[in-house]
Amino acid sequence: MKRYVIAMTLLLGVATYAQRGAAPAGEPGQAPGQAPAGGAGGRGRGLSPEQQAAAAAQTELEKNTPQIPYDAVSLPLMPTGHTIGETEGVAINSKKHLFVYTRSGNAGPARGAQAAELFEFDEAGKFVKEWGQNAYGFSFAHAVRVDKDDNVWVVDEGSNMVMKFNPQGLVTLVLGRKDEAIDYLEEFLEDAAHTERGRNAKPGAGAGRGGSFGRPTDVTWDTQGDIFVSDGYDNSRVAKFSKDGDFVKSIGSRGNQPDQFNTPHAITSDAKGNIYVADRGNQRIQVYDSDLNRKAIFSNVRAPWAACITPPNPQGQQFLYSADAGGKIYKLDLDGKLLGWFGTTGKKVGQFYWVHQMHCVSENEIYTGEAQNWRIQRVTMKPAPRSSASK
After folding, report:
1. What is the pLDDT of residues 307-355, one digit of tens each?
2. Whether 376 contacts 352, CB under 8 Å
3. Read out DSSP for 53-84?
4. Is the dihedral of CA 281, 283, 289, 293 positive or negative?
């Protein structure tokens, strides 16, 4: 009987820890357009005077910035034997095939054994195949990216892993390591011996080790193929790896100062190899060179949940798109100037609710994956023609 009581106490403790650990995600229960709970104002404490002033300034900026006309189409994606769930990740390869990393698995509790599936669709939206079925690193989907060689990368918040699939679907590189059940039991049985582990350290303290993540969120690359991971909900850092997966360096800790982060939720790069980090809780995008030296901070996009950069147009220009949870999507040049915005919160086609990831096809075409609306939308913008002076 005593053993039974001890075992039940441990299980209840594990469940309580899991629920407590899930709270800082900032996703479930967050009001549209609001900065994630756990930001500078803390969870459930509303906006600070500084945040209120920043929100007012942003509202005024948007009043004086053109709204971009656009059309949107919701894609009727139907995986064989499955359904699309929370569409956390969306990416497109050179063949214009669409990859969707979705929380649509149903093995175990909601944040449990496997709530992640990766689907491929052709250019017409026809289902091609499921990738990595029952992969050990598939747990709680967060992002998918396709590199210049058509390798498919997934970032899994639940397993703390980043996985690279070659175009044939073979896993060729793994970063991070999945926690196992025994790890959780050890926390309660031998907690004093594990106080230095990243998960038990002060939340957001960052980490210098490359072999482990704390709920990573996204991945990108520079021109040399070096790998950059936004890491993430717990570690509040950006980690750099060589193209072969060797840890190089990291930058960041939790805070609101330059080079600090509060939930770096997305990461992308431009044609010169500069790295753009969506610092969601601090309502800004921090820009770095490929050696992680800070170059700029953009504070005109509210709380950035998703970010992507367009391929160069014929004039060599690229543009940055950033999506806020409240349904607005912002267009910037790479110097950080806000060029326009569009979108509202809602569930109708053409509205957006928690855009979790975007893929930039061109300056005037993007794909959005929405966590709340369980869909992919193809968005086509119709901006006014540029004047000759602006070309």
Report:
1. 999 999 999 999 999 999 999 999 999 999 999 999 999 999 999 999 9
2. no
3. HHHHHHHHHHHTSPBPPEEEEE-----TT---
4. negative
Distances (CA, A) of 27 to 17, 88, 212, 307: 18, 11, 23, 17
Tokens of 12: 């209840």
267 neighbors 219 (Cβ within 8 angstroms): yes
**pTM recorded for the entire structure:** 0.84
**Nearest-angstrom CA–CA distance, 339 and 102:** 31
Q: How far apart are CA 173 and CA 332, in angstroms?
A: 33
- Strand ordering across the sheet containing 275-279: 264-269, 275-279, 284-288, 294-298
Supply the DSSP symbol for 186: H
Q: How far is CA 164 from CA 142, 146, 147, 243, 326, in A?
A: 14, 9, 10, 11, 31
Question: Is the CB of residue 204 less than 8 Å from the CB of residue 254?
Answer: yes
Write out pLDDT tens, residues 60-90: 999 999 999 999 999 999 999 888 999 999 9
DSSP reduced 3-state for 303: coil
Quote the CA–CA distance of 143 and 163 in Å, as a whole number: 11
